[in-house]
Amino acid sequence: MKAARLHAYGDLADIEIENIEKPEPGPDEVLIRVVSVSVNPLDRKLVQGILDDFFPLSFPYTLGTDFAGIVERSGPLATRWHPGDQVIARANPVQGGAFAEYAVVPATHIASAPANLTLEEASALPTVAGTAWQALMEVANLRSGQTVLIHAGAGGVGSIAVQLARIAGARVIATASSSGIDLVRQLGADHVINYQVEDFSDRLQDVDVVLDTVGGDTQQKSFAVLRPGGFLASIVSPPNKALAKAHDVTASYVFHETVGTRLHLIAGLCEAGSLQVIIDRKFPLVETGAAMAYLAEGHTKGKVLLVP
Ligand SMILES: NC(=O)c1ccc[n+]([C@@H]2O[C@H](COP(=O)([O-])OP(=O)(O)OC[C@H]3O[C@@H](n4cnc5c(N)ncnc54)[C@H](OP(=O)(O)O)[C@@H]3O)[C@@H](O)[C@H]2O)c1
Hints:
CATH superfamily of the largest domain: Medium-chain alcohol dehydrogenases, catalytic domain
Shape: globular
CATH class of the largest domain: Alpha Beta
Number of domains: 2
Order of helices and strands: EEEHEEEEEHHEHEHEHEHEHEHEHE
Radius of gyration: 19 Å
Largest sheet: 7 strands, mixed
Structural class: alpha/beta
Distance between the termini: 10 Å
Low-confidence stretches: none
Number of strands: 16
Bound molecules: NADP nicotinamide-adenine-dinucleotide phosphate
CATH topology of the largest domain: Quinone Oxidoreductase, Chain A, domain 1
């Protein structure tokens, strides 16, 4: 089968498209024919080795975590999944394996694909929807009636976070550039701030929850818009504890962990027509490096896909 592989830490030019043996599922694993894959900023960070402390890779390494496809075969302890089932899945980043024609994942990292989405659309979901849900609902405990600021509302995580916050009954404020404003409004934001022309920290105060998907100055400035007792959840870098104390807020770094039941809840929201998937662009698997370079420009709307 074709797979996008890496033989040592490096950068996008070091990714090779190779023909390798199909993987074999272990007792609690499932072999899935990959129909579509989505690309995350994490994939490039893994290639560069900058997450080696959290995700030490063994080489050769097949890239990719997020995909949708059709079950081929299950291990004897993974009887929940049957040949022909249409599923979404997220591989553990240390194992990777999604940027290929077939992938193996633990049965617990799989959910049925939403029946009303194509498998291409469904492949966009696992990391971004899992992260947005974990950060907003489980860590920041966002509640109906609260005000939430979501940075990069047009991005992969942001475009789902805006919709989840809206479904939860929050008042949603998001940041985006001029090219993303209409999209973010259409996803349900009550108010969108163009971060290229306005400083959100001059405009906002008494926000209950901030979801930081940008880091750096954006994260630093976010402390000042929170009410005392508010919550800053960053998915980019651990927030400054001294600043959190000075502003009397709770600040947490959220590290996404795959949970099959969370994927199942997300698929249910899609089937109910409550959650849309935004696709920016599709590339063939043989152009994995080009797809990752396009995402790394930092201005995509929704998700970038790879199709084997
Ligand atoms: N901790 C975790 O477990 C976890 C999980 C998922 C993601 N992440 C991290 O979270 C970050 C975001 O991930 P993603 O998949 O959402 O990225 P993404 O899809 O690449 O984000 C692209 C979006 O960011 C927007 N943007 C860029 N600079 C901005 C700024 N200064 N203010 C507001 N918006 C800005 C762009 O909007 P314009 O085009 O309008 O500029 C674009 O729509 C990445 O660093 C990723 O590695 C962490």
